[in-house]
Amino acid sequence: MKRAVIFGATGGIGKEIALDLAKAGWSLYLHFDKSKHRALALQKQLIKLYPQQEFFLLHLSFLDQDKKLLNLDKTLFPINALIFAQGITDYDFLGNQSLKTIDNILKVNLITPIKLTRLLEPLLLKHEHSRIIYLGSVYGQQGSALESVYSASKGGITRFAQAYAREVAASKLTVNVLAPGAVNTPMNEIFSTEILNQVRDEIPANRLANPQDISFWVENLLAPQSDYLTGQTIYIDGGWLV
């Protein structure tokens, strides 16, 4: 049985990934932090649609102390893939951000994913064609003003994936980053319609991405035929980055 952990499964992109992977026959761990009601609703929906598969809830804060992460591998059934779809930002000048805000962004987007990769690596190495996919951002390649810490965290996960992929490539554990541009998800609700329209006008494809545009590439990276693609960051941005 193919089984994956989707971190951030209740977010706009994470939920779409869960729906598409379940349709493709995957059993899933659906990670959530504060959105238990959304996680339960998603689990119920998937169990009804695909009763022959398994769908477990995984409650974990990416801001937890290390001791709360250490035994995670002992609580999971065998897994073939980790998908890190969680992420936070704070749209503001660096000079206005508290040290706690800076710390939280780095923990959620970069530090805890690296720690979880270290802790769950043994489970993945037991299987052929195992996968790790991180969601990065175009801002990891070209930093954004008012999101300097977020940009640093996404640039960091790109470089980590590039280096770590070389360590595990011989085991057929591939490590890649999908880096979306602007995506039509609740995370962008902090921006006005005017700003979003301005962003859309800068994108050659003349639209924001939909979560399905990202999930499509997750499915492709999980395929056994993708063994030779590793250490890469794939930009899904409608031509925004040139």
TrEMBL record:
Signal peptide: none annotated. Gene3D superfamilies: NAD(P)-binding Rossmann-like Domain (3.40.50.720). It comes from the Bacteria. InterPro entries: NAD(P)-bd_dom_sf (IPR036291), Sc_DH/Rdtase_CS (IPR020904), SDR (IPR050259), SDR_fam (IPR002347). One of its GO terms (biological process) is monocarboxylic acid metabolic process. Coiled coil: none annotated. Belongs to the short-chain dehydrogenases/reductases (SDR) family. This is 3-oxoacyl-ACP reductase. It comes from Lactobacillus rodentium. The gene is fabG.
